[in-house]
Amino acid sequence: MTDLPCMDDDRQIFVPPSFIALFVPLGKVKPIASREEIETRYDYCEDLSQLLFDQMRDKMAEHGIPIDLAFSRITAVLTDSSLDLSEPESVWVLSRLTELSEPFSCL
């Protein structure tokens, strides 16, 4: 018999292990936040990543901004407290932006 995660609600969102790890204290194996809280934070961070990627891509095309400059500007934006991001979430968003921008990294 295969162990499958219990899907007892209508949400069947896949949260990547890299994001779940943000909620697992060093030396522990279980997250300190509920599944619902982790999913909510993941939705927020993934949506923010997608939005920032779209804006970054558009600005790069419109103004000829190189990718390293675009990333440095986004890094500054991610420190804005109004975004309601923890430091680990900010790092994760930057990592996700790196994944999304891989096709542009040779530009």
What is this structure's SSE topology?
Blueprint lengths: L16 H4 L14 H29 L3 H12 L8 H15 L6
Helix pairs in contact: 2-3, 2-4
Oligomer, anyone? Answer: single chain
Over all CA atoms, what is the radius of gyration? 16 Å
Main β-sheet description: none
Instruction: Compute the average pLDDT.
Output: 87
Total of DSSP H or I helical runs spanning 4+ residues: 4
The global form is elongated
Unreliable runs, pLDDT <50, ≥5 residues? 1-8
Helix content: 55-70%
Total number of strands: 0
Could you say which structural class the secondary elements and strand pairing correspond to? mainly alpha
Residue share in β-strands:
under 5%
Whole-Å distance between the termini? Answer: 48 Å
Q: Which series of helices and strands comes N to C? A: HHHH
Characteristics:
107 residues; mainly alpha; 56% helix; 0% strand
What would you note in describing this structure?
- By secondary structure, this protein is mainly α.
- The chain has a domain at 35-101.
- The protein is 56% helix and 0% strand.
- The protein is built from four helices and no strands.
- The chain has helices at residues 17-20, 35-63, 67-78, 87-101.
- Helix 2 (35-63) packs across helix 3 (67-78) and helix 2 crosses helix 4.
- The termini are far apart.
Summarize the structure.
This protein is an all-alpha fold and 107 residues long. It contains four helices and no strands.
